[in-house]
Amino acid sequence: MASENVTSWRIPWKAMTWGLTCGIAALTILFLKVAHPARIWIELQEFPLWLFLMALMCILMAWGVDGYRMQFLCSSTKTVVSWKTATIMVISSNFLTLITPFAAGGAPFIIYVLYRRGMSVAQASAIVIGGGFAAQLGLFSLASIAFSLVNEFPGDISAYVSYIRTAFLLYGLLLIALIIIAFKGEELRRLIGWINIPGGGLVNFQAGFRDLFSDQGRFFIGAYIAGFFYYVFQYSAGFLLLTGFDVAPGQSLLRYGVSVLLGIAPLVSPIPGGAGAAELVAYYVLEDTLPGDALGTFILLWRAVVYYIPVVLGGAVFAHLVLKLARLKQPDPNQTDI
Predict the structure, then answer these.
(1) What is the pLDDT of residue 229?
(2) Best label site of 95, 158, 248, 314, fewest CB within 10 Å?
(3) 248 C-beta neighbours (distance < 10 Å), count
């Protein structure tokens, strides 16, 4: 029954189409309402190319760190996965995350890939869910530090920063509660005992989840640290672009805090990749800081670095991985590379 449930995974063409449509609509509104395309083109030519390339490099470094996180998590099950393979998996997963609502498409795909590599569904689910909790704790830590170090945000957003801090505190407490529930057997059975988890069921899932805390919790801690630095690099891209537009000169912490704020916005949007929502937040946060032409150019560059280019690159890697998996007829635990 496990194989029937797992091998039924399909490419989410509808979500991909919806994400593309929303992205085009957001760009159209940007060009029509914020700045004329001709003015944006002039601003693009004046923007320092090296900062744009450095921002892209930050995204690539974030992928590399996330690849290490996945490789380290897999080692908790004694499964040997090369850093190259782990990075290919997370880039493909990131592509699906960007083009599906609520960033929900990436995790099931990694579970599917790990199953095809020979893991049980329960083991793979434990790694993905436990590693996801650890990475989100890393995001919580980074955002908490950034928001606590910044005294005042630009524009009217300062009035809402206290609410954002409170929301993130509640989010962190919720994460900790979920980790405890997943670790404890009886509590988890009462909470999700009605869910049918294939490939060994709830007992094997909990065993795999607890393995992340073996050896004094080094696997979970390693995933937490990797997740923290993944988001450090991810949000450094926006920081570099803001630097190119001379936002808050001499206030590096403020620029980084704004970048974190912009990065969080798409994560809670039901629209794939936060298309529209992310642009709206960027406009609202920076409308009093940048003139229309510069603001439109920043939004275009920022979304290109964190969304459009990753979708193109991730889509290519995803297609490569799907073709490789199609040639793998049976799960093979001895294969370390894809």
Answers:
(1) 97
(2) 158
(3) 19
